[in-house]
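Two quick folds needed for the group meeting slides. Do the first one here.
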Amino acid sequence: MHDGMVVPSVLVLSHQEQRERLRRSCPEAVARSVVAGDPCIDQLRASTAFRETYRQALGIRPGQKLVVVSSTWGRGSLLGSPEPDVLRRALAELPTDEYRVVAAIHPNAWYGHGAWQVHSWLTPFLDAGLLLPVPDTETWKAALVAADVLIGDHGSLTMYGVALGVPCVLGSFPADGVAAGSPMERIGQVLPRLASHRPLGSQLEDALVAQPGDPGLEPLRALVTSRPGESAALLRRLIYQYVHLAEPAAPAATRLVPVPAPVTASRQTPGCPAMFVSVSTTHDGTATTKTTEMTETTRTTETATVRRYPAALQSEAGRHLKAAHLVADLSEPDVRWSRAADVLLLPRGRTPIASAASLQWTRLTGRHPGCSLVVVEESEDGCLTLLPDGRRLSARWAEHPRWADFAIAGSLVYDYVYGHAGSAGRESQRSPAPFGVRASAGDGQEPGLLLITES
């Protein structure tokens, strides 16, 4: 209203309930309102049939969970709140091989601060594998369709996540930042809030179990639009009426979310990032296998689950780091990690394979007093490990899933050599090779088989 007159020619609303709120707050404008639905939710819902296509484009492996962290703009937003720690926690506490994290940041934040500043603030997270779509693409829509779980705030993306049935947890939610009586206010009342004193992973798992099919959320999902699937036609008709032109003969249809260009981690750095690694094992017994030479080999077997966490993002020793060992690149410039590492990695590109056998423990570890194992990558399927007592163990992936690399093989060898006998059911700390480990990178991940032999 201005000088007692309604200013806009038309107010486009997505749901009939908005017209009722408008009637209470500004009855003079009701006659100018049109309920035309929401083109964005129509597009998102139409695209859900192609969820796996978007997941593949985003680089999500089978068995991995995709976490979308959404932030609107302003001080009450997830990234603008007094304790903007959610993004760090998502990358620090969730195992890197089980989860991928996408940050969907409102364009106002991008353009208000500038792309350089946003990237500067998020550099540690980008180094840890954060996917950060730029605001002039529709990648955030593809990520939302592909998401397993959403950490949001009072922005519209949280509302869209609820409407799509994506389990949601609120990382920030200023009660005074939303309209009274609105669906967004209701979201703040019914969705769980992220707790700082509980492991983030367990809170997300609770949402994944409780929210799908929750009848209490159904009324909220219905409040996004009261004209589902009709918005394209209604909006086009409205706009052509106002420009006094005839509509095109072809029907207005909702278009699908474009498939994003193949997405990788936003920053690629040489070397292997420092990781805390936990290995939990159960004893299987013994097994007999036939080699390519048709000879039979009997070996002890275990089932192991390996979980890795970026070292640089850890603020304290949480429960996810219980009994974890530190793995770092031999050439890691940050001495916090290289000097304290239990396991040092030497990738193939920096050591000719022919010289791997001539590597000496003392020459490699002289400046690394914390080291207990050196892992030398020899091929895509195997590595050589060096021990302080002069022993050498070879580790080879007999069954090689996509998540498995030489660094994980090194951690499995470390657990084989130094793991506690009680937890693994071994008779001694150093069981004789040959040894087989049925390895997994967490729930839903394709298993692999690592064979450890004396070299």
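Then this one, please, same format:
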Amino acid sequence: MNKIKKILVSQPKPTSDKSPYFDIADKYGVEMEFRPFIKVEGLTAKEFRQAKVSIADYTGVIFTSRAAVDHYFRLSEETRFNVPDTMRYFCTTESIAHYLQKYIVYRKRKISFGLSGKLDDPQLMQALLKNKKEKFLFPISDVHKEETETVLDGAKLNYTKAVMYRTVSNDFNSEEPFDYDILLFFSPAGIDSLIKNFPDFSEKYPEVKIGAFGAAAVQAVKDAGLTVDIEAPLPGVPSMTAALEKYLKENRPAEEEE
């Protein structure tokens, strides 16, 4: 096979030089380019007001992402709502809970979090049910999983969904070179963006290999009529970088093999 020279990772560039992606680039002599196929845009205060949801009416907030945290506090400020010290926060992961420190004094607030990253996490659900009297606000993207509502409805919580941000395609312009040998994806939205940018992708770039992380992304690649060449997580390859290195090692040109 031809030597793989350039790989597009559809994520922001790592902030640390110690990222495994850079180690792989050095080891296999490939160029890594980091460019999300999607980006998050916050709703303006005017757009948010049109939904007729008043942030001030709620005594608890459920967060499933850092983006939700950012846009909740941004829109609170833009709509002149001073978030009170009594506000309760319920997060699907500990990392999201710690991220709240960007906006609040962590120890002085009432914060609960789950361990699995899912809304139906037993620890998180226990905290939510313990505070069932609260009115919960649930900040979400315009594209979200409908099953989240089933979980909250099943717990008979008094909650309101509030779209605070949207996921949009990070389009390529016609002058941009598209000279990649491998594309790595981490969400169905990334695949949707690829097809939006290149409707004839499979005919135009038949040699480009595709990697996908997570069952949803893998299924999205297949639904788009494309082939998953690199998949993670799988036994022995828990991360995308592990799967990528395995693929590069197994597909080295013969003259490079030791």
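Slide caption for protein two: The mean pLDDT is 91.
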